[in-house]
Amino acid sequence: MARFYVPEPEMIDGILRIRGDEVKHIRRVLRLKAGDEISVFDGSAKEYQGTILEENSFSIAVRIEHRFTSKRESSLEITLAQSLLKGERMDFLVRKATELGVKDIVPFSSSRSVPLLESAKELERRRRWEKIAIEAAKQCGRGMLPKIGSLRDYRTALLSAPSESLRFILWEKEGRRLKEILGRARKQNRIFFIVGPEGGFSRQEVEEAMEKAFVPVTLGERILRAETASLCLLSILQYEFGDMG
Q1: Other C-beta atoms within 10 Å of 3: how many?
Q2: Which secondary-structure segment (H or E) carries 201?
Q3: Beta strands in the chain (DSSP E)
Q4: What angle do CA 193, 196, 198 make, to 5 degrees?
């Protein structure tokens, strides 16, 4: 069953009306018509299933037959703070992190970040990441969308971590083994971890993080690319404390 994202759905007498970009996707891309069944989610865990009643160039009317709350969300509230990555690597990271159940993504710039976005391009990139997250949520069946924060500097990213969260900073040089840390940790519902750019963090940046109660951790002897490290840690956390495995 095809699945579509409709924020704040317009519902009258059991009829949900779809407008905007999804209309084109339904009519021209998938060529769905009256009588076809579809699924709609609003990004806040509410799901709707029904049958198309009528369609035109401006809107789609759907008779809703089932309403329910999505049960495909992890019990963990994981925030990934990621230094900007080159090219399409950030796009890839947003897509896969959404599939893996991340709750929030905090992009930031650090001393070795490349590229540094101009303010005009920042909004454009953020909108692109949000669109990618929507498409990933459609594909994997999530009912909620991860929140993608505005670009900030490194120190502000550190301050974004809730006081009661378990905090990690990935550092390949002198971090403690993640297996050791998780083996001693009680299950935490809120986890905030921060990952650097391709060039890694400077020692000063790691020391600043430690002052904010972040624990430096390493994933092993091999040097992983930034996006690989982020997704690897996210997967491990979901396996150990969340809904994977």
Answers
A1: 15
A2: none
A3: 2-5, 10-12, 15-19, 37-41, 46-55, 59-69, 77-83, 104-109, 147-148, 152-153, 166-170, 176-177, 190-195, 215-218
A4: 145
Judge whether 168 and 126 are in contact, CB under 8 Å: no
Name the DSSP class of 44.
B
pLDDT tens for 174-190 read 888 888 888 777 777 89
Sign of the Cα pseudo-torsion (27, 101, 73, 105, in order): negative
> Chain-wide mean pLDDT for the chain?
92
Strand order in the sheet with 46-55: 2-5, 37-41, 46-55, 59-69, 15-19, 10-12
Domains of the chain: 2-69 (2.40.240.20), 77-241 (3.40.1280.10)
The pLDDT of residue 183: 78
82 and 226 Cβ atoms separated by less than 8 Å? yes
